[in-house]
Amino acid sequence: MTRFPTNLPLISFSFSAVVVLFLFLLLGPIPAQIEARKAHVISFRSANLYPEGIAWDPSAQHFLLGSFHDRKIVSVSDAGVAETLISDPDLPVNVTFLGLAVDYLHSRLLVAVHAADPLPPFDALAAYDLGTRRRLFLSPLPTIENDTNRPTANGVAVDFKGNAYVTNSAGNYIWKVNDRGEASIFSRSKAFSAHAVDRESPFSYCGINGVAYVSKGYLLVVQSNTGKMFKVSEDDGTARLVLLNKDLPLADGIAVRNDGVVFVVSQKMAWVVKSQDSWGEGVVYDEIDLEEERFPTSLTVGAEGRVYVIYGHVLEGIMGKSGREVFGIEEVRSEKENEEESVWIYVLVGLGLAYFLFWRFQMRKLISNLDKKTN
């Protein structure tokens, strides 16, 4: 009578030992891999730049930064190589480039231009072709009649049609500039002035500030002097408060990651904010301490969905100081998210191991039954 080969269990055992060893090796390096990938830190030199705004150009794979006084845009590579990308001496002397947004669908850079006191009032949106580096238009931003507040063109966002949205931090309203450079006042929602402001607090004069466009058809705007977030319809400018579990005091820049998670920056920290209902409500999921003395102001989403903050030392520029050469761009990472990712990796590998052990048990049982039948 034919007998089932007795060496099969040995082969099965050898194979299983290899697989278990593989899983052990896979499990072992996981924490090290997560810990080893530290936040990306870029240090670069650009004398007296004092950048307030930052944007990422996906086509050229570099960061774009505005200058506080020099009427220029500087590009910075991953390795920290900085060079002047755009220089526009036709603008008024000493104007400040604040918010920046890359319109990658139309290969344009959109920049909020502001002249701070004691310079004559000047607020505009400048558009530059990223290929030729030429200015496409310079659109003065209209003011409201009898408005005693001097405007401050600050944050910039752009939609898929090429429409730009610019926040007026002093007047608490939003401008819209279409792809042809035609500017208008887009949103003067009462929601922007519905919350009390502590006039004794730092930067109490700064209202709506950072703005980001969400592809579902609305803007997300943060307000510095109240710590509130608003959802603004791109159709008619209607705004309503996003209900958060806590305020975001001195909120400045805002960026939306590809997965819909929002990052908001202040001078002291960055908040990770999530929503399950398209921003009717939201939850501050994590808080990340930043270096206050380096005065972080703005965020952008760079390569591979990584979020970066600019350390531009802008307060020095506001106070009239000069001479600084070194500035920084740093990746902002949520340790809480990293921990969750680590847990899920363990869960998936654990499930794989459990499945394999179950399969091995079934195979041993099958081989045992076959061996009995052959006997």
Automatic annotation (TrEMBL):
<dbReference type="GO" id="GO:0005783">
    <property type="term" value="C:endoplasmic reticulum"/>
</dbReference>
<dbReference type="InterPro" id="IPR011042">
    <property type="entry name" value="6-blade_b-propeller_TolB-like"/>
</dbReference>
<protein>
    <recommendedName>
        <fullName>SMP-30/Gluconolactonase/LRE-like region domain-containing protein</fullName>
    </recommendedName>
</protein>
<keyword id="KW-1133">Transmembrane helix</keyword>
<keyword id="KW-0472">Membrane</keyword>
<feature type="signal peptide">
    <location>
        <begin position="1"/>
        <end position="32"/>
    </location>
</feature>
<keyword id="KW-0812">Transmembrane</keyword>
<dbReference type="InterPro" id="IPR053224">
    <property type="entry name" value="Sensory_adhesion_molecule"/>
</dbReference>
<feature type="transmembrane region" description="Helical">
    <location>
        <begin position="343"/>
        <end position="361"/>
    </location>
</feature>
<keyword id="KW-0732">Signal</keyword>
